[in-house]
Amino acid sequence: MDSTPPPSSASPFDMVSSALGQYMPVGAAAAAAGSADPRGDDAARRPIPADAPPARQEQILGAVNLDCDLRITRCNLDAPVFAGVEALPGSPFVDLLPSWDVPTVTRRLRQVLETGEPHVARVQRLRRGDGSQLVVSMSILAAAAPAEGLTVSLIAMAKRLHLYAAETAIGTSLDIGETAQSLAESLLAWGDVTAIDLDFAVWTGEVATEQPQGRIRLRRAALVPDRAWPDGYVTPGDDLPGDASRLLAQAIRRDDAAQALVIPDRRTIERVLGSARLVRALVPGDEAAGVACIPLVLEGAPPVVLGVAEVWRRADRPFADSELLDLQELVARTSHHVDLARQHQREHTQVLALQRRLLPRSGGDTIETASVYQPATPDSAGVGGDWVNSFPLPDGRTALVVGDVVGHGLGAAATMGQLSMEARALLSAGLAPDEVLEHLDETVSLLDDAESGLAAGYSALGSTCCIAVYDPVGHHVALASAGHLPPVLVPPNGPAGPVAIRPHPGLGAEFALREPYDVHVFSAPPGSLLALYTDGLVEDPALSIDEGIDRLTVAVSAVHPWDALQQAARGMVSALAPRRRRDDVTLLLARMIGHRKGDTATWRLPARGDAAARARALVSELLGRWGPRADTRDSVLLVVDELVANAVRFADGPITVRLIRTGHGLLCEVGDTGNGRPRLGHGGLLDDGGRGLHVVHGLTTRWGVRWTDTGKVVWASVER
Q1: What is the pLDDT of residues 607-645, one digit of tens each?
Q2: What is this structure's pTM?
Q3: DSSP state for residue 208 in the 8-state scheme
Q4: Assuming Cys at both sites, which of 238, 408, 692, 716 could form a disulfide with 703, CB separation 3.0 to 4.6 Å?
Q5: Strands, E assignment, 332-420
């Protein structure tokens, strides 16, 4: 039977050492893995001579094992390329690093220890005993159980291998800052400090021009190594001084093909820059230095230069022609990744602007709102299809809307914007939440037809939406949902929990599966707290949806009536959102305030000929106590008279008159059992039809109609 342990039981260090055995002589491999003979084998442990056969010199892979204190326990760095790297057992691993890299690498080592997640392929420098440095690709792996500690895999960066690895790694992110940082880290194999300076238009995602006109503005997008720089030095996010931008952009202004620009030594650099301020801003450190500036060129006719890459090194290491060719090749191979990130940045900016446009602005006087939106990942175009909105309706109520459109990017954002604006328009027109969802359902179906939906490669079928309308006078909420998770209600006195709503398919379901939307009406007295959210907040692979909603209920119940709502919402998302999010997170909190009892009055009158006179008398008495201006009082009385008379003329059943005192005026409402919609016509002076509405239209700031289960309500707003 084969006694070789299965791969799952082998430590990362053993696996790397086993791989080394395929390329190294048996003696060297034994030295790497450690001899089983306690006396050791001096021949096996002798370093490989520099004049060894080529097969032995090509070895570029090494491994170092660390304990939980980040000290070296054993190592395999016997290949000639690692000569001078003194990895002594018992010494801290960070002794092999340049001082400025110690905090960053230590943080990443401890992160792998804590999480077990590997950190792969970081371009890193190691210190040799003679003061020189070796560029390697460093990966950090957790030791296999039951062992503890880490294995650090090191690959000496042969130039051609580095070109291939860098081109592969740089295109893994669509974030322009991360892309620039990856390019800067890859260029570090040729220098001591590297920087990426981009045209400001590229950084912001705007369209890059072939021949920039006038003043060129460059912004530093990346800088390595990651360490503290002296005051005045340009670091990521800073704009380069105008004089420096003009100097570094010389390659951009060339009429022929853009080429690398080399300044060989410190004296020449100081002469070219011309001032101590520019030297302090651009030259890293006080040591003598040379620099190669390589333009980032987007191939085309004519080519477009996106920015400049800078590679700095000590003056005693001048750039060879072959190195400049390698630098230009790497930058040329990866410039298109920078342009892809620029396009993504533009899309991110556009979609984020739309998302912010849809976020709630203010809850009004009768309700307080707060919202939080967090995208799933930076690479999802910045935002997805989640939206949340709250807005006052013209009749004094407040609408709360939350939705989740399938997908991410511009397609989802466009659908999100269309559904959100349509919902707002329909709610403002007086439609009930269930009627609004019926229209949205039809809209999603139309957007998904062969011409406008599937042909564009995007489908919104299955999107969800929840609409709640708060009545600040009756202190109740009317709610309808299309496939959305139930809101959580915390009344001031009573048990908290999700609102009991009947499940319904999402928007755009097949016609045969469509059912009427239910409207659930529940009491929400002043002080109640309502939480609307999307599934990204409560979906966690480690929990069921019900457990996630229970956690949210507990968190909403813990909000004190005097707590700042926005701060509470942020804390809630921070505590509840899964660490590894697969979806956007959206939360809307609404604290019900309502109108004070003394600011409203309601009367029910029979539909008789004296109803208008009776309504005027009741309203006049109330206005005497409220004390509005005389012209406001006259306008309100005339509006109530016309609305009640119109209701008596065209409707049956009792009439409801309601007067509401708001912060900016008075709101008059007259409800009846009729289903006809009052319209403002173009009748002549002698035409009696519609004359009352012309009077109402002239005396009010806004008026409209909303529909109820028993009829309609005509409302009108009069300024005080």
Answers
A1: 888 888 999 999 888 888 888 888 888 888 888 888 888
A2: 0.56
A3: P
A4: 716
A5: 367-374, 384-392, 398-408
